[in-house]
Design goal:
mainly alpha
């Protein structure tokens, strides 16, 4: 029987989350900003690297490439998960695969922002190739990493602890990544906007690699992880996972959450500069306030989830997140000073950010252990891969839709596309709330 992991071991594990969160930030949040930048005055922030207009009337090049890469990413999840579940290694069942993915994951996280050609067609091919490799190696690292959540958390009390700490390190990675706007602004004093942005992304990539390697080098899987060997084929494993009704409704609601979250991640610079009329540096401040305030809520959310359950806590988070997007849609019509709205929305976002950062991973760990107790099947990797599939599907759809909405208007004179994107995020959140109502929580998972 493996030992319960001490806090020091959980911290070692959690630092890997900081690494991959930082490595993933650029591709998830800055591609549209870099390749289809906001318009400042008569010109854009960056040069034109790829075609900016509509494709087939309603799509964009960046949207198509992002969507295609994310779909490829989602398809590889079950393949990597099955490989990981069946893996055997004295170095570590999960760590061996994580070690394969870490370096190229970090490398491609900045190569996607280094288009080397003058031709927009050649740069489109470069972007398409680098982003596909980026997501492949991201999956190779992240799928086995996530499987360790339930394997380290083989005791109920440890699951929320692990989920809370990796939420903290994920948020730190996101917060560091979101400082790209501010860091770019500082570096622009001595270099061009493009050089400043690319230097920032390269620094993030180097830091992310070192953090990702910490659990690979220092986590003792054999001592602290409860692991079985997966036996099913990929098809049977996926079928078994989605036959779990509670998991199915959880992942469908999670899909809606990631659609909404990706809209705010892609759109924060537009909401700040276009709808509120503030400098782009305020985008970093907005996300910073939200995440710093969310840290203050981590202990209260743990207490709340233990008292009323994870389900009710997440339902409250859906309501708060929906309200944030609805207020953003009406921000130009609300007769309140812009800075008051700015700080109010930033603080309001803290509760859902903290809740969705902590609770979903703990819910999946609960489902994994219940599933294994009922079926005897060790499928931790596949459960997290299935969740990742739905998450990435949501992100893919958002990356396809969001740039197309910007075609409706992304300037101070015509902000229609930016406003519509906020309303769409509100609708996604609302649908997520109703889907999650169908998830049935076992009271024993929060009364231990």
């Amino acid at each position: 029987m493996p030992q319960r992991p001490p806090l020091s071991t959980i911290l070692v594990y959690a630092l890997g989350q900081l690494g991959w969160s930082l490595a993933a930030f650029g591709a998830a949040n800055l591609l549209v900003y870099f390749y289809m930048p906001p318009e400042e005055g008569a010109s854009a922030v960056f040069p034109t690297y790829i075609f900016q207009g509509a494709v087939l009337g309603i799509l964009t090049v960046i949207g198509i490439l992002n969507f295609g890469a994310r779909i490829f990413d989602a398809i590889t999840d079950p393949l990597i998960a099955n490989w990981s579940d069946k893996s055997e290694s004295s170095f570590g069942k999960r760590k061996r695969i994580m070690a394969i993915g870490a370096l190229p994951f970090a490398l491609f996280s900045f190569l996607i922002f280094y288009p080397p050609f003058e031709s927009i067609n050649a740069n489109s091919i470069w972007l398409g190739g680098t982003i596909f490799f980026f997501y492949l190696f991201m999956t190779i690292y992240v799928v086995p990493y996530n499987a360790l959540i339930s394997e380290l958390g083989h005791h109920p009390d440890d699951r929320m602890k692990i989920s809370t700490l990796i939420s903290v390190t994920w948020a730190l990675g996101f917060l560091i990544g979101n400082s790209a706007y501010a860091v770019q602004g500082m570096l622009e004093q001595s270099m061009s906007s493009t050089e400043a942005f690319q230097a920032t992304i390269m620094a993030f990539a180097i830091a992310s690699f070192f953090f990702m390697m910490i659990p690979v080098l220092f986590l003792n899987e054999q001592k602290y992880c409860q692991q079985g060997e997966g036996q099913d084929s990929i098809f049977e494993s996926v079928k078994s996972v989605f036959k779990n009704k509670d998991f199915l409704f959880f992942t469908l609601s999670d899909l809606m959450y990631w659609l909404s979250l990706t809209f705010i991640q892609l759109g924060v610079s537009f909401y700040i500069t276009i709808l509120m009329g503030l400098e782009k540096g305020f985008a970093s401040l907005f996300m910073g306030i939200g995440f710093l305030c969310s840290f203050l809520l981590y202990i209260p959310i743990n207490i709340l989830a233990k008292k009323i359950g994870k389900k009710r806590t997440l339902l409250l988070a859906f309501i708060a997140f929906s309200s944030t997007f609805l207020l953003t849609f009406f921000v130009q019509q609300i007769p309140v000073p812009q800075m008051v709205l700015f700080y109010s929305l930033a603080v309001l976002s803290a509760f859902p950010l903290a809740s969705f950062g902590i609770i979903p991973n703990a819910i999946i760990a609960d489902i994994v252990h219940q599933h294994e107790a009922q079926t005897g099947e060790a499928q931790a990797g596949m459960f997290y891969a299935a969740r990742n599939f739905m998450m990435k599907l949501g992100i893919s759809i958002a990356n396809l839709i969001f740039p197309s909405l910007l075609l409706l208007g992304k300037s101070l004179e015509n902000p229609m596309g930016v406003r519509v994107s906020a309303f769409c995020a509100f609708l996604f959140c609302l649908l997520g709330y109703f889907l999650f109502l169908k998830y049935e929580e076992n009271a024993a998972t929060y009364q231990n």
